[in-house]
Amino acid sequence: MSAAKIKVLCVDDSALIRDLLTEIINSQPDMEVVAVAPDPIAARDLIKQHNPDVLTLDVEMPRMDGLDFLERLMRLRPMPVLMVSSLTQSGSEITLRALELGALDFVAKPSLGIRSGMMEYANEIAEKLRAAARSRPRQARHKNTPPPTRLKAPMISSEKLIIIGASTGGTEAIRAVLEPLPANAPAILITQHMPGGFTRSFAERLDRLCSITVKEATDGERVLPGHAYIAPGDQHLELARSGANYVARLNDGPPVNRHRPSVDVLFHSASKHAGKNAIGVILTGMGKDGAAGLLEMRQAGAPTIAQNEETCVVFGMPREAIAVGGAVEVVALDDIPSRLMALVAASGRAQRV
């Protein structure tokens, strides 16, 4: 007896996008479109009628805005939602708000050649729908959510670094790690799987929320305490040395583990140039990117942390890292910031002895 197919409801005001998503999804052996809707009002009845496993959702639609619908949906009937977003500055900011409201992930609509562009994304769309169907619902972040208590920073050396990798569900997980950190936390380098055009908005949003300075990394810039550097969405980020200083390096080399930026590329560079002075963290995400690199960091003497299954949206990347022996510790998401500061403090005491 074959397994039940993943039931998908597509909500988009563009008939072309609805048709293309239906074609892509129905070509997969393990999923099917059970209904399509031109707007959220029509979608409400179809959700009740078909009980879909996953929803694809456009943002700008008639009769009800996609974000308004998403906020109500996640409050009244939480379910996995994959956003279908435009690759624009305003589109990226709206998409990040959708992730805060509880959407699992997003795919970007091409600006030109919509049919050929969407077909190029076919495998990515199918993979994200599979991940969504298996995902763990998470608490949405609302506008009136109070900020977390800021942690106190131990005495640190400018040599200390925190290196973070994440994918599906990672935008909110990274926020949860960075927001409690004090302004003088160690320098942080981050690779989050995200297409070009979204990472700058992501960095700007985090910068408004955090005590530390958060920015999109630029090639050759010095890596400083109190700053977090996010890999641009279409370039690998690496840690390098320039004399006595750490610097960020960007390159447009081939994808690694099908990703650019790749977590493994960042982790490998940290193991090479920082060794035991770095702390490696792998967060929620599908696939295995980062597992080999986290093991390299551990073998170079770095403390390493994997997010635990219970708090992951998708326990793919942490599971793979744990399986190969890359994680020294497995920690719940909300406990990671304080654990990082404790590891930094312990390292400082060891250096003074």
TrEMBL record:
Domain of life the protein comes from: Bacteria
UniProt GO MF annotations: phosphorelay response regulator activity; protein-glutamate methylesterase activity; protein-glutamine glutaminase activity
Basic residues bias: start-end ranges: 133-144
GO CC term (a single one): cytoplasm
PTM sites of type 4-aspartylphosphate: 58
Subcellular location: Cytoplasm
Catalytic activity: [protein]-L-glutamate 5-O-methyl ester + H2O = L-glutamyl-[protein] + methanol + H(+); L-glutaminyl-[protein] + H2O = L-glutamyl-[protein] + NH4(+)
Stored Pfam families: CheB_methylest (PF01339), Response_reg (PF00072)
InterPro entries assigned: CheB-like (IPR008248), CheB_C (IPR035909), CheY-like_superfamily (IPR011006), Sig_transdc_resp-reg_Me-estase (IPR000673), Sig_transdc_resp-reg_receiver (IPR001789)
Domain annotation Response regulatory: ranges: 7-124
Post-translational modifications: Phosphorylated by CheA. Phosphorylation of the N-terminal regulatory domain activates the methylesterase activity.
CheB-type methylesterase domain segment(s): 155-347
SUPFAM superfamilies from the UniProt entry: CheY-like, Methylesterase CheB, C-terminal domain
Biological processes annotated in GO: chemotaxis
Main localization category: cytoplasm
E.C. numbers: 3.1.1.61, 3.5.1.44
Keywords: Chemotaxis, Cytoplasm, Hydrolase, Phosphoprotein
Residue numbers spanned by region Disordered: 133-152
Active-site residues (renumbered): 167, 193, 289
Known role: Involved in chemotaxis. Part of a chemotaxis signal transduction system that modulates chemotaxis in response to various stimuli. Catalyzes the demethylation of specific methylglutamate residues introduced into the chemoreceptors (methyl-accepting chemotaxis proteins or MCP) by CheR. Also mediates the irreversible deamidation of specific glutamine residues to glutamic acid.
Domain free text: Contains a C-terminal catalytic domain, and an N-terminal region which modulates catalytic activity.
Family listed: Belongs to the CheB family.
Family annotation (PANTHER family): PROTEIN-GLUTAMATE METHYLESTERASE/PROTEIN-GLUTAMINE GLUTAMINASE (PTHR42872), PROTEIN-GLUTAMATE METHYLESTERASE_PROTEIN-GLUTAMINE GLUTAMINASE (PTHR42872:SF6)
Designated name of the protein: Protein-glutamate methylesterase/protein-glutamine glutaminase
Protein species of origin: Vreelandella aquamarina
Gene that specifies this protein: cheB
